[in-house]
Each structure stands twice: as C-alpha cells, then as structure tokens.
Write a structure and sequence with these properties.
The protein has one domain: Rossmann fold, CATH 3.40.50.620. The protein is globular. The protein is an alpha/beta fold. The model has no long low-confidence stretch (mean pLDDT 86). The protein has helices at residues 18-32, 44-54, 63-67, 71-82, 96-106, 121-127, 130-137; strands at residues 5-9, 35-42, 87-93, 111-116, 142-146.
Length: 157
Amino acid sequence: MTLETLVVAVGPNDDARTDELTEAILDLAVPSDARVVLLHAFTEAAYESGLEEAGFDDERPSPTELAARLEGVDSLAAALTEASVPFEIRGAIGAEGETILAETDAVDGDVLYLSGRRRSPTGKAVFGSTSHRIMMNSSCPVLFVREGVYDADGADA
C-alpha cells in the first residue's frame, strides 16, 4: 500500500498531545513523502462558540479558517513546516465521527490518525466513544495515538 495522504483528526484538546502526534505523523510522513491533512470537525455549537471566542462579529470565516486558529492545529502545522512535510488544513461542520469519516474519504486518506487519553471501561460505556465508532467504520487504517505514549526522551512509556 502506497501512503499518499495521512489525515490527522485534531481534537479540541489535542494541544496537550502535539508531541505524541507529531512523532507519530513524522514516522510515516517523512519516509513515504505523504502529504498530511490536519482536520478539525466542529459541531455547529462548537463552530459558533469558536467564532465568539475568536472575536468574529459580522464576518463568518470558513470552518477551515477557524480550524487554522486552533492551538493544536497551529502547533502541528509548525512542526510539519519545520520537517518540510507538505500539509493542508481542513475544517468541517457536522457530527464529529461522521464528519471525520466523510472528510477522510473526500481526500482519499490512506491512514487516519486519532488521539486521546486513556479512559476507563465505565467512562467509555457511560459517555460512548467517538474514537471507537470511527475505528469501526473507517474505510482506511486508523492509528490511535494515546496521550503519554512517549516520555520526554521520545522513548516508549
């Protein structure tokens, strides 16, 4: 399988996981010369809240323009630029899981990156797991990057 497009679903809390995500992305993107799509899926409420937080009153930027302002997206974009990895930023509005899957298909993603934190089985049962639904329904392989996988030296924890 040739890797041409790596899609990274950047969540609202991924600014805490950019080191882990960057390492995992570069592990595949650099040797394969793949391009990276940094994707943020907004719910309608999150998009409206983001507009308010960013200070947009009359002007309504596209979801992609708003996604580019997110700290996690910005940090990953800086790391990819430093490593000379081609990338684009995409934002979309919709239910998170379905939107991530649809956007991954739209760009012909070869691998989809998700990230998150470790949760208890009870937490998963009570709150559900968007990541699990995405993994079970993705048309391409999914690489899940868990927070805390690498220590400060980059060695497996």
